[in-house]
UniProtKB/TrEMBL annotation:
Residues 1-12 have a biased composition (Pro residues). This is Class I SAM-dependent methyltransferase. Keywords: Methyltransferase, Transferase. GO terms for molecular function: methyltransferase activity. InterPro entries: Methyltransf_25, SAM-dependent_MTases_sf. It comes from Cellulosimicrobium funkei.
């Protein structure tokens, strides 16, 4: 990430998503409706490019929590999913859901982007593992109360909406009492550093407390991409306000054998800074 005053716009978004045809990029407040709406269009337009760049690392029927490469088969953050009703929000091409399906879970994958879900349907055909998929904004889930035992997302939805509290409320509504909600996001600390995988990315250049989103606009000034920063405390307050209990915050370390560079993530910065935070929460009951 670059400072708002930097003469050069950032070349990658904090999530590592490659920029589209943008006229301007930086950190600034935009109307919540514009920022929240941009996600769908951006992911529709960039689904193929995103999967071309990251598809091999993610796998077609594999569950990766983050660029550090933490896999659910090793981490088991969701516990035993066999026979459990599982919801993925912001599923993208549903690679995680596809893996859960192979573990005996009853999964539904949801995403706001038809382009990402279409890419997921192509992976269903290629792998022979079919995941039921529903197009839905994570802030308005089309499911009855208390439907699921487990809900999760790996970097989906939350970074791209101005009102993540609405996602937590919706997930809490569709979870059964005792159900769990686990989500990974860019580690909040990362927002204080340039989004650069080299040593340049190791020197803080903006305030951790600056909540202005990273925004890209087109030539007409329309918001085409927005990504939102929340401090650690912001995330905790939002899940607690939704009636969820916080059980753990997992901060995966960068493994010595992981050479992947994903946007600002990579082995150089990974040796010093956390890149991902995974929040494990539970609906009481
Ligand atoms: C970084 S991808 C994460 C998906 C997958 N785990 C992956 O690593 O490719 C972010 C996903 O969030 C989805 N998304 C963005 N805003 C959303 C919203 N409001 N509701 C649901 N999904 C949303 C995007 O369409 C995209 O598929």
């Amino acid at each position: 990430m670059s400072a708002p005053s930097s003469p050069e716009p950032p070349v990658v978004a904090p999530s590592g998503a490659a920029p589209g045809p943008t006229a301007d990029a930086g950190y600034r407040d935009v109307p919540a409706t514009e920022g929240g709406r941009a996600g769908r269009g951006w992911w529709d337009a960039n689904a193929q490019e995103y999967l071309h760049e990251h598809g091999t690392f993610l796998g077609a029927a594999d569950f990766c929590w983050c660029p550090e490469g933490l896999r659910e088969r090793d981490a088991r953050l969701l516990g035993d999913v066999a026979g459990r009703r599982v919801l993925e929000v912001g599923a993208g091409a549903a690679q995680c859901s596809r893996w859960l399906e192979t573990q005996g879970a009853e999964v539904v994958a949801t995403d706001v982007s038809g382009g990402m879900l279409a890419a997921g349907a192509a992976l269903d055909r290629a792998t022979g593992v079919r995941v039921p998929a529903v197009q839905a904004d994570a802030r308005r889930l089309p499911f009855a109360d208390a439907t699921f035992d487990v809900a999760f997302t790996s970097f989906g939805a939350i970074p791209f909406v101005p009102d993540a509290a609405a996602v937590h409320r919706e997930v809490a509504r569709v979870l059964r009492p005792g159900g769990t909600w686990t989500f990974s996001v860019t580690h909040p600390m990362r927002w204080a550093f340039p989004d650069d995988p080299s040593e340049r990315g190791l020197t803080a250049n903006r305030s951790y407390f600056d909540r202005r989103p990273y925004v890209e606009t087109d030539a007409a000034g329309r918001v085409v991409y927005a990504e939102y920063h929340r401090t650690l405390g912001d995330h905790v307050r939002e899940v607690v306000a939704a009636g969820l209990e916080l059980r753990d915050v997992v901060e995966p370390e960068w493994p010595a054998d992981n050479t992947e560079v994903w946007g600002g993530w990579g082995p150089v910065r990974g040796a010093y800074l956390p890149g991902t935070a995974i929040f494990r929460t539970r609906l009481p009951g």
